[in-house]
């Protein structure tokens, strides 16, 4: 990893903000879109760029905000990668979010988030906190292949259960679904049943499929050659050089997904899930910093 002094930390606006403390990732997921060349990385993706002044920038920004809002993190780089254990920048930023009465929406694949469950619970009591976990495959063996350097799905479900016990709402990202690998009814239904069991608030799934861009595509194909001999040729024959790779069974699987969520009162339309993630109710306490 290497350190940088960032000029700013918050992006977006209109009632919610984004924040990425790190750039790059050490989880090694074979499908990661963040590797795509459009994001203009000038260093190796695994050489994590650390915005070491992120807490100072965040505090400076929140001091100037008159309107409280949700602050999301993890959309581009996981805030609980291995380096977070020693650096603790995510926790420092969460402490600032709590102190200023803002809400947090944290997205991760890692059980390291449990280290901060006390702080997440405190944010949720004062304002609002939503924990988002990505689940792609219920099979632990397959999970270790496609997401090799992070805890498996069973452990992530345990994380969701711990959040439920603390009253912290959760949203699952059921994405991506890799054609010819995890796009089976058995896999999708196992994940959905687990989501219902731990009482997730919503599940985000745009489609049963995968997107590939330049940079990401080459990495994915190399992983297919290593772990699934012959599958790359099948993918190329089926999709060519397309950006969107929907599962051949996407229509049926999406209907199963929607029907399951409707029957159990789980948010499933992406716009409803994002509305929930971005909305901060007016329940926080006004805090004096004098």
Characteristic key phrases:
3-stranded mixed beta sheet, globular, 39% helix, 290 residues, 7-stranded mixed beta sheet, disordered C terminus, alpha/beta
Would you kindly provide a brief summary of this structure?
This protein is of the alpha/beta class and 290 residues long.
Number of strands: 12
Low-pLDDT residue spans: 284-290
Percent of residues in beta strands: 15-25%
| Span between termini | 38 Å
Profile the largest sheet.
7 strands, mixed
Gyration radius, in Å:
19 Å
Structural class by sheet pairing and helices: alpha/beta
Strand order of the largest sheet: 2-3-6-7-8-9-10
Helical amount: 25-40%
Report on this structure.
- It is built from 11 helices and 12 strands.
- It is globular, with a radius of gyration of 19 Å.
- The strands form 3 sheets. It has a 7-stranded mixed beta sheet, sandwiched between helices. Strands 1-5-4 form a 3-stranded mixed beta sheet, with no helix packed on it.
- The protein has 290 residues and is an alpha/beta fold.
- The C terminus is likely disordered.
